[in-house]
Amino acid sequence: MRRRTLAVLTIAVLLAAVPTAAQAKGASAATISGGGSGGLPGGPITLKGDGEPGSGTDLANLADQAGVFTLLFEDGSGGELEAVPTGRRGPRYTITWTFPNGQGTDDTVRQSVWPYAAGGPLTYMASGQPVLESRTKGGWYRASDSLRQNLISLGLPERQPLAAPAPAPAAPAPEPAAPAPAVWPRVAAGLGLLLLLTVGGALLLRRRSSPGTATAR
After folding, report:
1. Which tens digit of pLDDT belongs to each residue from 92-129?
2. What's the total number of domains in the chain?
3. In the list 51, 54, 129, 161, which could disulfide-bond 136, CB 3.0-4.6 Å?
């Protein structure tokens, strides 16, 4: 009886120690590659271990910084970008995440990363990738600078973030137009001059038309 009880307890402990797809959503490995022509100087970088969210391991921290769980499932914590980001991105790297699916095989999910992008690191995960009996939600994610610093500590080139383009200078405001000269003073002056000419002409005609004074002899 004691042996049977011990065997049952052993099986229960073993079952509790084996995570299922429903229980475990963390990655077991991540491989960083890419970065342009020739790839990484030392070759791809691989992390292994417990990638469960909140476990505090290097693998879990990298997944959290890259927004993996935000882009992986529909019940992610949010924070993904609603539109394709603009601006310079710099070299692109690829992180290939490995997830044990509980069936003796692994699912792999690929995520693009731009660590030096202007405005902060960017990541992108394509939607529809099979993982843990589901499919990735996918999308764009703006990470904090801690992702760039972490990737540099893992072996990426030490580079500063790209500077955002300077805003175009505002066009100078047009100078105010000079006020148009008033018209009525000119009209009044013209009428006055016309009146003077009319009066002067009338007086001249009157003097010429009147008889001259006779001279006494």
Report:
1. 999 999 999 888 899 999 999 999 999 999 999 999 99
2. 1
3. 129
The answer to the question of residue 121 being in a domain is: yes
Token reading at 135: 């499919």
CA 30 to chain centre: 26
- CA gap 56, 196 in Å, rounded: 104
All residues at 6 or more sequence positions from 56 whose CB lies less than 8 Å from its CB, including other chains:
none
Q: Which domain covers residue 45, as residue numbers? A: 18-154
The string of DSSP codes covering 160-195 is: PPPPPPPPPPPPPPPPPPPPPPPSHHHHHHHHHHHH
In single-letter form, the type of residue at position 52 comes to E
In a domain, 77, yes or no: yes
